[in-house]
Write a structure and sequence with these properties.
With 187 residues, this protein is α+β, with helices and mostly antiparallel strands. The chain is 29% helix and 30% strand. It contains five helices and nine strands. Strands 1, 2, 3, 4, 5, 6, 7, 8 and 9 form a nine-stranded mixed sheet that branches. The radius of gyration is 15 Å and the shape is globular. The two termini are 21 Å apart.
Length: 187
Amino acid sequence: MNGAYSAAMSYTIRPVSFYEIPSLEMLIAASARALSQDDYTPEEIEAAIAYVFGVDSELVEDGTYFAVVDENGAYMACGGWSKRRTLFGGDHYAGRKSGLLDPAKDAAKIRAFFVHPDHARKGVGKALLEHCEAEAIKHGFKEAELMATLPGVKLYARYGYLGEEVQKFKQLNGVEVPFIPMRKPLI
């Protein structure tokens, strides 16, 4: 899928390969550090990077985790959707629950969306979200859910996701990081 967020820049959304995970982990950390400052303390940001944020290799294996790259191949964003039970967290997150969902009764999971700070608020996240929702619909899902970061709530709410109460997750270093569960009907 191709798109453009300005007359001067175009991008491609494509599945991620395993060899790209280290580069995407760097994008995720840069995104979290730059774009979360208004919503999280520095301690919360670092705890989330260390214990929660990151690429889930099951999504890469499933072909449901995507990179948004510019015409030079530079990463602009990453994110995906999942047909698995894990709601959030990269490979190093302790709360993972692998197992397949039933599209007839379960919601697809929108997962691990991060935009490079240079491309924030330019439509890249929206394009990636629309791509993931369309893919989930193709696989029979009628609803999507996610665990939003506090800065992510703004994006998801703009596109129809409704939030619930803030949930705090205590990390291994003792820092509690707040997130907001959100849901949206897809059809």
